[in-house]
Amino acid sequence: MEKTTEPISQQVETYLPSIYSLTLEQLQAWMVEQGEKPFRAVQVYEWLYEKRVTSFAEMTNLPKSLREKLTEQFTITTLKTLVQQTSKDGTMKFLFELHDGYSIETVLMRHDYGNSICVTTQVGCRIGCTFCASTLGGLKRHLEAGEIVAQVVKVQKALDEQNERVDSIVVMGIGEPFDNYGELIKFLKIINHPKGLHIGARHITVSTSGIIPKIYQFAEEGMQINFAISLHAPTTELRTKLMPINKAYPLPKLMEAVRYYIEKTGRRVTFEYGLFGGVNDQIEHAEQLADLLKGLKCHVNLIPVNYVPERNYVRTPREQIFAFERALKKHGINVTIRREQGHDIDAACGQLRAKERKEETR
């Protein structure tokens, strides 16, 4: 597990790898190495993802010797809930503490079509988008796949009490998913697997700010995962002001990668476009955006931004949002306005962590 800074506290002397980080195939290979039958891996998966136990001792259909081996070599990652906020609309936001004292955010959103979880892939972020609270304090470390999986398990256990389930996943929380690519792919395989959390690929969405080499790599994965680009500007100059990553991966090159992805996979791409008052929300910007996306198999998701105290951006007026939408539709662009959720809590990504854990985001 890569770390970029020292942990803020060391709560355990020796950290064991998370059992949640193993795909079924990896766990089967481990079983064979231990002289066990591969079917034992399926049994472990059932205990982890169907019964959602928190200790290997509870896996009573495994031999005692195997349970001891598992306990010696792995941990079942548990997350400590530091803060849990519930919005009037049912949105729940969690601030979880990791084994080394760092914290991450996870959000449960309730829709007409089911429950969706937004997961985090890094502690902090190095991308530096000027409108985002997640990047305050920079990147502390990557999460391992098991720590991402644990977020889903933790929220699912809360839903178990209400006889509900997680229906979909969006990988749009703190961090840049493609900056932690290997662990991201393992996470996706684990939650998608029928013996894992069994969340359908078409109910999983991954978003990137535009790490171009990984877009090409993702196109080759053969996954039916939904794919989104955090765009937020229709021109190179404006995007560079909002998103410094545009200096490394300029908009024209990004669009080439998107075209390759669409051609390779045949899948539609969603462009996330946050509207910032007086910055990127004028009709001329909508016209430029329509021109940029002309002919692409895509969808635009307009996002009325949440106010972040540490940033200077303000919300676009309601009528201006609708005018922007109409301008895109006039050019045949498939567009929707994201329904606001959690507006009465710390809804902006990274905002709860910034407020509660100032030592991490300073």
Automatic annotation (TrEMBL):
Coiled coil: none annotated. Keywords: 4Fe-4S, Cytoplasm, Disulfide bond, Iron, Iron-sulfur, Metal-binding, Methyltransferase, rRNA processing, S-adenosyl-L-methionine, Transferase, tRNA processing. S-adenosyl-L-methionine binds at G175, E176, S207, S230, L231, H232, N306. [4Fe-4S] cluster binds at C125, C129, C132. Binds 1 [4Fe-4S] cluster. The cluster is coordinated with 3 cysteines and an exchangeable S-adenosyl-L-methionine. The active site is at E105 (proton acceptor), C349 (s-methylcysteine intermediate). Pfam families: Radical_SAM (PF04055), RlmN_N (PF21016). Residues 111-344 form the Radical SAM core domain. One of its GO terms (molecular function) is rRNA (adenine(2503)-C2-)-methyltransferase activity. It comes from the Bacteria. One of its GO terms (biological process) is rRNA base methylation. InterPro entries: Aldolase_TIM, Methyltransferase_A, RlmN_N, RNA_MTrfase_RlmN, rRNA_lsu_MTrfase_RlmN/Cfr, rSAM, rSAM_sf. It is an enzyme of class 2 (transferase). One of its GO terms (cellular component) is cytoplasm. The keyword Lyase does not apply. It catalyses: adenosine(2503) in 23S rRNA + 2 reduced [2Fe-2S]-[ferredoxin] + 2 S-adenosyl-L-methionine = 2-methyladenosine(2503) in 23S rRNA + 5'-deoxyadenosine + L-methionine + 2 oxidized [2Fe-2S]-[ferredoxin] + S-adenosyl-L-homocysteine; adenosine(37) in tRNA + 2 reduced [2Fe-2S]-[ferredoxin] + 2 S-adenosyl-L-methionine = 2-methyladenosine(37) in tRNA + 5'-deoxyadenosine + L-methionine + 2 oxidized [2Fe-2S]-[ferredoxin] + S-adenosyl-L-homocysteine. Its EC number is 2.1.1.192. Its cofactor is [4Fe-4S] cluster. It is found in: Cytoplasm. Belongs to the radical SAM superfamily. RlmN family. Reaction proceeds by a ping-pong mechanism involving intermediate methylation of a conserved cysteine residue. Specifically methylates position 2 of adenine 2503 in 23S rRNA and position 2 of adenine 37 in tRNAs. This is Probable dual-specificity RNA methyltransferase RlmN. It comes from Anoxybacteroides amylolyticum. The gene is rlmN.
